[in-house]
Amino acid sequence: MRILVFNGSPRIGGNTDLLVQSALKGIDRQANRVEYFRLNDMDIKPCQNCGGCTDTRVCVIKDKMQQIYPAIRKADRVILASPIYFSGLSAQTKIMVDRCQPFWCEKYLHNMPIAGKIHRKGLLILVGGMKRQIGADCSNATATAFFRSISVEEHRMLAYLGIDTRAGVKDRPGALEEVFEAARILSTA
Ligand SMILES: Cc1cc2nc3c(=O)[nH]c(=O)nc-3n(C[C@H](O)[C@H](O)[C@H](O)COP(=O)(O)O)c2cc1C
Fold first, then answer.
1. Cystine design at 82: which of 93, 118, 154, 166 (Cβ 3.0–4.6 Å)?
2. Is the pLDDT of residue 96 over 90?
3. Protein residue with its CA nearest to atom 19 in ligand 1
4. What beta strand segments (E) does the chain contain?
């Protein structure tokens, strides 16, 4: 299978990063092809709502999203990982999500969902500094709209809340192992 992994945190060695590294270790590399994007390192312009993709299903902006579009199209599994910022996905993540409007148009206006060889599944990994659930719920609402637009019809959410220090997730019992296992299952089932 082709497994697409997005890391939406700017912090190298931070919580999202550690969880993503654990997820990557959980994926059987012999049986699967992984494509990994660290969104903070990519020059991606926000959606301009220009309407360019409405009829054409193609984005007119030529930037690093041009690497991501074909990867999304080919993916069998999608892992989206983000820190919670202001009760939502990080800006790095949200910019990429908004630029998936061409897929939304393709599916919902043109009635052409991405045709997968197999049922496309996803995994959402979130980390928040606060213990309140609202950040995970709001992030999951946006991630659900993203996943469904790119024809990932089901996903699991793993949210780690109350973790604020750079590598604090290491002290959360079972967190790295849980993500490892979720990625392992995603890449085999
Ligand atoms: C700009 C900004 C906004 C944040 N907003 C929230 C928030 O609304 N809710 C929350 O639980 N944590 C919030 N946090 C805390 C981060 O989610 C937390 O530090 C997390 O561990 C960062 O993950 P990382 O180490 O992968 O970068 C915010 C952090 C930043 C920098």
1. 93
2. yes
3. 164
4. 2-7, 33-38, 77-85, 88-89, 121-127, 154-160
Q: For 7-36, what is each residue's pLDDT tens digit?
A: 999 999 999 999 999 999 999 999 999 999
* pLDDT the model gives residue 189: 81
- In this structure, are residues 42 and 11 in contact, taking their beta carbons and an 8 Å threshold? no
Collapsing DSSP to helix, strand or coil, 104 comes out as helix
Q: Could you count the other beta carbons within 10 Å of the beta carbon of residue 25?
A: 13
Q: Select from 127, 133, 158, 163 the residue to mutate for testing ligand 1; criterion: most ligand atoms less than 8 Å from CB.
A: 127
Q: What predicted TM-score, i.e. pTM, was given to this entire model? A: 0.98
For the Cβ of 16 lying below 6 angstroms from any atom of ligand 1, the answer is yes
Q: Are 61 and 99 contacting, i.e. CB atoms less than 8 angstroms apart?
A: yes
Contact yes or no for 34/24 (Cβ under 8 A):
yes
CB of 150 closer than 8 Å to CB of 122: no
Q: Which atom of ligand 1 is nearest to the CA of 17?
A: 26
Minimum-distance ligand 1 atom for the alpha carbon of 18: 26
